[in-house]
Amino acid sequence: MIKKEMIAMLLAGGQGSRLGVLTSKVAKPAVSFGGKYRIIDFPLSSCINSGVDTVGVLTQYQPLRLNTHIGIGIPWDLDRNIGGVTVLPPYEKSANSEWYTGTANAIFQNIEYMDSFNPEYVLILSGDHIYKMDYEVMLDFHKQNKSECTIAVMPVPMEEASRFGIMITDENRKITDFEEKPEHPRSNLASMGIYIFNWKTLKEALIAKQDQPGLDFGKHIIPYCHENGAPLYAYEFNGYWKDVGTLNSYWEANMELIDIVPEFNLYEEYWKIYTKSDILPPQYFSEGSVVEKSIIGEGTEVYGEVYNSVIGCGVTIGKGTIVRDSIIMNNTEIGDGCEITKAVIAENVSIGNSIKIGVGEEVDNETHPHIYNHGLVCIGEKSILPDGLTVGKNACIFGETTAEDYKDLALASGKTLIKAGDEA
Fold this sequence. Notes:
seven-stranded parallel β-sheet, alpha/beta
């Protein structure tokens, strides 16, 4: 019988609604990051770098691009005969077809998959964080303490603690209590949503709580283990970890990659980030082009100027165009004579000539101020912008637009334009 010491279950079903139009056609873990990567590459690479060679990826929302990206796991060296990477969408059962209703429900629906490896331990991961973590060190901590469930925690500033699930521990890091987004936090150890369970303990909890609506780790499984006397421990992580759940945190995390001394380094030899790379020609910089403090993906052609930006693969930046403080994803074409400032432009967008993006005063977005803020402009994938257009700050465009869609060829700050059929 197959026996794996530890297998990983990676939750990648998230819609990521706080990323606005960036995730209207693609699951959040499949969103581009850092030029050539996708968000899911980071937890997958941590698995390989930690010696975890069996990973179940649980998909749900808009899974096509994610499934294509992962394939049979070759880039992560996860194309194994036994184990490897397996994409696990919700499947129809004879009685009732059931979507995953909560994080733990998704795991419960795949008990048979996990059982087939007869694991000692199960590592639960989330597919939408940017970090590098050696899960082997966490497993050693789990074993040393004879823990049945170990929760990775990160110290956060006390004033921010009420935004997280908070663990209260004794001097040995044993968890004595926990609070979900407490108003008056008693500790600053925030749960990272990374867990190691003894498989026996997890299986028992999943089966006991299976009928709970919206079955969730933080709300149901961990309290169940705690109430039943299972020893729970908090493993403190002090490396770089970023939840790229909002458009602004996503933009910030990309910008941090191009700092002179990046807090998160993509260039470390001993901890590689693996991804599925298309076979692309090298970058091309024309005479007179300028690139400063930027990441430029393969196959990208720069005829203009790029400052402090993260540019994906297969992008074209036209002559006389100036791009500043922006993220431009794969296969987007930008015409000549444009000025683009603090924009997040998704994949396969076509931007005409003489377009200005990110100009004028900063005004709250009229439809989704909690998504489109901090002066960022967001353009959804496959959008088309006509020549001569001016777009203000905190604005959002999604769809194939023409000059007729705009008043005087302008979209003011804080405005949203989404063409019918391209609902965000």
